[in-house]
Amino acid sequence: MPPTQPSTEPSTEQDRAKWAAGTAAIDAYVRDGMRLGLGSGTTSHWFVRALGEAVAGGLDVVGVPTSTGTRDLALEVGVPLTTLADVERLDLTVDGADEIDREGAMIKGGGACLLWERIVADASDRMVAVVDDGKVVDVLGAFPLPVEVVPYAWESTRRSIARLLRRLGYDEPELVLRERDGEPVRTDSGNVLIDARLGAIHDPLALDGQLNWIPGVVENGLFTGIADEMVIGRADGGHEIRDVSAAPTARPATTRRGGA
Ligand code: 5RP
Question: Which of 117, 148, 219, 229 is catalytic?
Answer without folding.
Answer: 117
